[in-house]
């Protein structure tokens, strides 16, 4: 239970930090912001990898973990690549 | 073993720093790309670190998942046209939810005996993850304009059904969490998952296609919250921090979109908007003054400053590149050309900017609504292409208008207004636009792309 309070503490600080940092992103970049956060929400891959890596006797959990790895990887790879593709299109006027 | 654990935790802290710095670098277009790269490196580090966990002993499923996911992700990233970006983001929101709900399931299957508070967190992660998944699939289908009607789907007793489903999910949660090791616990969680899937559909299906930007933003936030919740299950601080950042980002965008549409979040989420267009008959004084492209050319040719207000109609007719051509010939003629972007101009936050950037329009010419309005009095010509409600002065002047209070681009304050429009049809909200009847407004009827092309050739021929 003590760890729960500790984690909640981190959560609250992270939420405030998130609002602070992200409200500074101009509306010009809101679409890449969203696809970029798609990529970051793929962080679940960390949990998925641990589950998918479970050894013998944990067949079912490992299989579910493997599917989770696939979904999270789509987010990570797809999210970062498409964000890069979009940001690459934003050019300043060449003078 | 303790040492490896500490090392991995340190790598996780570095990853969290790169995510935060990545968002920070996104505050300017010049540094945004580096920010994204930095964040991706942090993610790669986190993945590598996790593979070094002592618990990770088998790599078949990991490898299969990584390869399949990477191929699908890369295909989506490179093959999705920019006009379909809302759909792709919607789909990725759903996949994020799916990953979180599966992590919760895997943890429960691997260790069925969990303390009550862990049972609650597993249940919550499954609930949020599944609602995000099915809700996103509905949003995706509505944006694709396939499988599901874009109009709000309403039936009697809708809210009661949703509430009953939610109540059943709550009961299931209590049943499951009190004794996760009970023989029926797995079935209970299975039923909760199925009901949560139904709930996601029930929540999004009554919301109209025009409100999808808000829904997508909200589901974006949910996918972050789901990741965060799964972080509590496996007690991983990086998941909590990253999930909270995404959750915050989604909420911020949701609020911005709601404010731009002059609606409350509750009003959007409860749905039904746009199911029946009111079609109120309003008395608008003045007359319509249609012009031909050559007349429009003379007006533009004499202008020192031109502001273009693009709407989604511009993207639909694929006229972005023609607009850029017009911009180039006008700039050659010594005219300052800027674009005024309303927050709801596209189909997701910031969408119109991406569509114009794709057509090589430099981003310093893209100006936000709040920045352009104070300068509007000094603008010679405001040209409106495929936009309607976002320039409707009734929002400022007519208390009885359904648009009253909505922030608009104040095009009517420019010296001359040229409206490019297919016909005299009404906007999304079904409201008459008095701007079209103003003495300083000229209407250029026809297909936007054809009209723009005609203007470009007028400029080219006269040189």
Instruction: Name the poorly predicted regions of chain B.
Output: none
Tally of DSSP β-strands of chain B: 6
Q: Main sheet of chain B?
A: 6 strands, parallel
Question: Uncertain regions of chain A: pLDDT < 50 for 5+ in a row?
Answer: none
* Percent in strands of chain B: 5-15%
Task: Explain how this protein is built.
The complex is a heterodimer of chains A (95) and B (463). With 95 residues, chain A is an all-alpha fold. Chain A has a domain at 30-89. Chain A contains four helices and no strands. In chain A, helix 2 runs antiparallel to helix 4 (59-87). The longest helix of chain A is centred in the C-terminal third of the chain and has 29 residues, at 59-87. Chain A is flat, with a radius of gyration of 18 Å. The model of chain A has no long low-confidence stretch (mean pLDDT 93). Chain B is an alpha/beta fold. Chain B has two domains: 85-270, no CATH class; 293-462, 3-Layer(aba) Sandwich (Rossmann fold), CATH 3.40.50. Chain B has helices at residues 2-25, 29-51, 60-79, 85-110, 116-144, 158-178, 185-204, 212-233, 237-261, 265-270, 293-301, 312-316, 320-332, 351-358, 369-372, 394-397, 448-462; strands at 305-310, 336-341, 366-368, 381-385, 416-421, 441-445. In chain B, strand 2, helix 14 and strand 3 form a beta-alpha-beta unit. The longest helix of chain B is centred in the first third of the chain and has 29 residues, at 116-144. The chains are: A mainly alpha (95), B alpha/beta (463). Chains A and B meet through helix 1, helix 2, helix 3 and helix 4 of A and helix 1, helix 2, helix 3, helix 4 and helix 8 of B.
């Amino acid at each position: 239970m003590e760890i729960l309070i500790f984690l909640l503490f981190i959560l609250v600080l992270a939420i405030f930090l998130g609002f602070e940092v992200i409200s500074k992103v101009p509306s010009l970049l809101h679409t890449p912001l969203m696809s970029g956060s798609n990529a970051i929400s793929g962080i679940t891959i960390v949990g998925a990898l641990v589950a998918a890596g479970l050894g013998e006797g944990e067949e079912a959990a490992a299989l579910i973990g493997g599917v989770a790895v696939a979904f999270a990887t789509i987010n990570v790879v797809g999210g970062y690549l498409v964000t890069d593709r979009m940001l690459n299109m934003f050019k300043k006027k060449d003078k | 073993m303790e040492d490896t654990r500490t090392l991995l935790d340190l790598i996780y802290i570095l990853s969290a720093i790169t995510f935060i710095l990545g968002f920070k670098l996104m505050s300017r277009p010049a540094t945004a790309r580096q920010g994204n790269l930095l964040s991706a490196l942090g993610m790669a580090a986190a993945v590598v670190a996790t593979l070094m966990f002592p618990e990770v002993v088998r790599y078949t499923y990991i490898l299969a998942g990584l390869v399949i996911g990477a191929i699908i992700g890369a295909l989506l990233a490179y093959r999705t046209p920019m006009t379909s970006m809302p759909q792709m983001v919607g789909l990725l929101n759903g996949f994020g939810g799916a990953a979180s709900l599966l992590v919760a399931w895997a943890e429960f299957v691997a260790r069925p005996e969990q303390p009550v508070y862990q049972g609650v967190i597993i249940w919550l992660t499954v609930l949020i993850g599944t609602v995000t998944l099915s809700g996103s699939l509905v949003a995706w289908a509505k944006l694709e304009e396939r499988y599901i009607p874009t109009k709000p789907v309403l039936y009697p007793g809708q809210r009661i059904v949703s509430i009953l489903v939610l109540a059943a999910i709550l009961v299931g949660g209590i049943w499951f969490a009190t004794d996760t090791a009970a023989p029926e616990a797995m079935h209970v969680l299975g039923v909760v998952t199925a009901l949560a899937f139904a709930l996601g559909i029930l929540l999004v299906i009554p919301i109209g296609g025009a409100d999808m930007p808000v829904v997508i933003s909200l589901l974006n936030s949910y996918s972050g919250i789901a990741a965060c919740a799964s972080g509590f299950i496996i007690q991983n601080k990086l998941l909590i921090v990253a999930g909270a950042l995404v959750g915050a980002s989604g909420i911020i965008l949701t609020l911005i979109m709601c404010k731009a549409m002059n609606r409350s979040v509750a009003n959007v989420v409860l749905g039904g908007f746009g199911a029946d267009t009111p079609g109120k008959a309003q008395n608008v004084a003045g007359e319509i003054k249609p012009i031909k492209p050559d007349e429009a050319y003379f007006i533009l040719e004499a202008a020192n400053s031109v502001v273009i207000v693009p709407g989604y109609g511009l993207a639909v007719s694929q006229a972005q590149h023609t607009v850029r051509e017009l911009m180039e010939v006008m700039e050659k003629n010594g005219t300052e050309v800027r674009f005024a972007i309303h927050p709801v101009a596209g189909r997701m936050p910031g969408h119109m900017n991406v569509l114009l950037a794709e057509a090589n329009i430099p981003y310093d010419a893209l100006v936000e609504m709040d920045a352009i309005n104070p300068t509007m009095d000094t603008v010679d010509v405001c040209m409106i292409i495929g936009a309607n409600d976002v320039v409707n002065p009734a929002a400022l002047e007519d208390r009885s208008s359904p648009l009253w209070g909505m922030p608009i681009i104040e095009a009517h304050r420019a010296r001359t207004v040229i409206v490019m429009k297919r016909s005299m049809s009404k906007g999304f909200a079904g409201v008459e636009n008095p701007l079209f009847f103003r003495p300083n407004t000229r209407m250029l009827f026809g297909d936007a792309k054809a009209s723009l092309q005609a203007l470009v050739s007028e400029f080219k021929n006269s040189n």
